[in-house]
Amino acid sequence: MAAHLGIAVLVVLYFTPAPALGLGQGPPAVVWATGAAEGPLLAGASKVNITPYTEPGATSGPRTSSPASDPISNPVSNDDPDWTGPVTLSGVWGEIYGDANGNGRYDEGEAFTDDPASTAADPGSAGRWDGIYLAGYDADRVATGVVDPLWVRTIVLRNSPAGGGETGGSPGAGDSNAGQPGLTVAWATLDLIGVNSTRLPRVRAYLAEIAPGLDVDVILLTATHTHQGPDTVGLWGPTLFETGRWELYLDYVDRKVAESIALAAARLTEVEVTYGMVDPAGYPDLSGLQGRMGNRTPVFFDEELRVMGLAGRAAGTQVATLVNWGAHVESFPRESSLISSDAVDAMRLAIEEELGGVAVFTPADTGAVVLRKDNPVTLGTEGLERTRAIGRLLAEGALAALRAGSPDPGATFLEMRSKDIYIPLTNQSFRLGGILGIIDVPLYVADRWQAGSFLGSSVKTTMYAFRLGEGTFTTVPGELFPEINFGVDRHHREDMADVTTGRPFEPSIRDAQPGTYKFLIGYTQDLLGYVVPAYDYRIYGLPFVSGVGLGALMGEVPDPNAAVPPDPSRPDALYKEHYHEITSASSYLGPAVATTAAGLWGQDLTRDPSYREWLGSRSALFLLPNPFAHLHLDFEDPWVEHQ
Prior knowledge:
Radius of gyration: 24 Å
Structural class: alpha+beta
Helix content: 10-25%
Strand content: 15-25%
């Protein structure tokens, strides 16, 4: 019976169209603040512990935290009275279970006590063990201890009500500049694999409870993308078909985000802004840290390490230091079961020890970019030693960048625009994940109506572009391949003629972005996976059918030119990886992100010959697109690409 039901679900999904929706349709951009002012700019910062761990008694088990004598260790025990949920004998939060095999973790089939609070938060979790599954890498990584704490670190920025400029921003305001000055933005960065904008109403509800008089116009959520933190997405539960999300913990995080915003807002003070930037050319210690995952070409990275420092005008004390760098900061072995913010922990501690204030790490364009062992500083180190060495190296680069910088006299007024975008799913495993309750991604029909997993075929997210003097910031809801940022026309595969899908190159985000210091902020508001250039986007579907259907099965597609060495200097490396498409929501994601970013920065793309192809605008109907617009049958190639 179950098998028949599963087949029926797959058949329905197969014949559910992936629409060719014009991404340019949908709501216009919202102008939150524009113009200029003499300031002063106000800023405050805070950090709040979200580690799902409470130190057990000395007889309850081995201590898993770093020794107190270690100068870069943190106290890891989170004794927050706001956590009223269960704690396992190891100290990691989770439902109490009987460790029948004595391996120090919960295993499927072991007896456990269903926690009433967990069931109340998520009735669907009744009869299912709730606890901390680590996100990233593989399923069924149950956390067994802690190395260093996880945090939500928040910077609140506010335009001075006494300044000039204009503020708008209510949904539907379009490009109107009408409004009152005093835009307030709360930017929270969390040590998690990803964030979901669907949590924002809950965050705002807690904020109203904690600080009822506080008015925040925009809340930005960014994830550091640690692979040693709780599964907040759902993809890394006990199996591929069971969620790893624990609603009780997610609700706790929502409250801590609100608390962090309130604390930062209470510390608002007049600040001056200093920007800095280093790269391997000017700071050789950074060389050899970045590599391309699976030798996926082109071998290109965003090598800049960008820094924004906020210092109080009156006392000169550091309020916050924000670091932006493009690589997956994941140096723990994939079999590790310990909670950690990874190398980011050592980086932040070193910066705070030197400058004070709150240090924040934001990932940049990290798509297919990982840490390598070729860096001369970290070469030969392994495990926790290497993790901390990488963190200290990033901190030294950030401090060097700030020392070489000077206060930006124009950074006195925050300008901001945003746009909601609706992206057609071509990786239908996202929809299947919603049907099975694995992930929580609301789906939409066209750009108007929220619908269930069967009817909905587009996913909604919001992108932001904001400027503060010579620093400009673009947010992206995922893992952007750096060549989309810097220009696919300049950075693409050398064997492109043999492998291209025929899709046009995305416009460069960086070319449209003004300013001297161009920050690219990944994993913000949502995690829609890898943002892959459309010309090289390949994913499995049901055999040889592109444009409709299931869209993706769990497996990588072979590269059509895999026998050609991707890197002439490494003739042994013949494999070109297309893993990234498995966790990418859509082949439209790259074009959607790039064109939206360029538009937010004022670039008019409507006259570009590729405009309609970027947006996937193939439909003759206004609301219901032609489901067969992109259907083609190909009995030659063993791969399919969803347009």
